[in-house]
Amino acid sequence: MIKQLIILTTFLLISCGNNAQETVTRPEIANADPLEAPSKNGFERAYFASGCFWCVEAIYESLEGVNESISGYAGGHTKNPTYKESNTGKTGHAEAVEVFYDPEVISFKTLIEVYFGSQDPTQVNGQGPDNGSQYRSIIFYQNEKQKEIIEKVKSEVAKNYEKPIAAEILPFLKFWKAENYHQDYEKRNPNNSYVQKVSIPRLNRFKEKFPELLKKEAH
């Protein structure tokens, strides 16, 4: 599903509907033992999928304590997925981000709270106008402690909604970096129609909700 086409039809008031596919996570992935991602230059890594990775990357990079956020693919069963392949929904991968953060400045729990607070956590297989299993919500854990934190925050968030929380909780196995043109897409393409009508408004809604977590330049 091409984002530009989605946004065109959406803003022409043609409803794209929720054409979400059934979640495609395979049992051998859901039941696998998680892997621990090594730290890099003192920064820990965390992995999230929450709709369009252009949007999610920008949200996490606005946080104090986050050094970098990288767009990519995770949660699937194929090797070296491409954007074109993942958009078919057949690879099992979701658009995801790899977040490098300083645990002395921002905790893993706070990253989870940001995750739920920066989206509609009840939307199944998508966010906003983006629909399909490749846009589904997933939080990846690297150990049992992280899993416990995720489940506790998810349980607290669920109290605020009548619909069930859609996010999957999966073991982290592998992150595949997306093509270079996807990296920092929102920053480098501020006039793109999707960025203007979906990404930037989503980022601004997040900033209004969590002003105390933002970098000074992100205000």
In short:
The protein is an alpha+beta fold and 219 residues long. 33% of the residues lie in helices and 18% in strands. The protein has eight helices and eight strands; from the N terminus they run H-H-E-H-E-H-E-H-E-E-E-H-E-E-H-H.
- Structurally, the number of domains stands at 1
**CATH 4th-level superfamily:** Peptide methionine sulphoxide reductase MsrA
Order of strands across the main sheet: 7-6-1-3-2-8
Helix content: 25-40%
CATH architecture descriptor name: 2-Layer Sandwich
| String of helices and strands | HHEHEHEHEEEHEEHH
Q: Tell how many strands the DSSP assignment holds.
A: 8
Average pLDDT level: 90
CATH topology-level fold name:
Peptide Methionine Sulfoxide Reductase, Chain A
Largest sheet: 6 strands, mixed
Q: Which outline best applies?
A: globular
Distance between the termini: 32 Å
By secondary-structure content and strand pairing, the structural class works out as alpha+beta
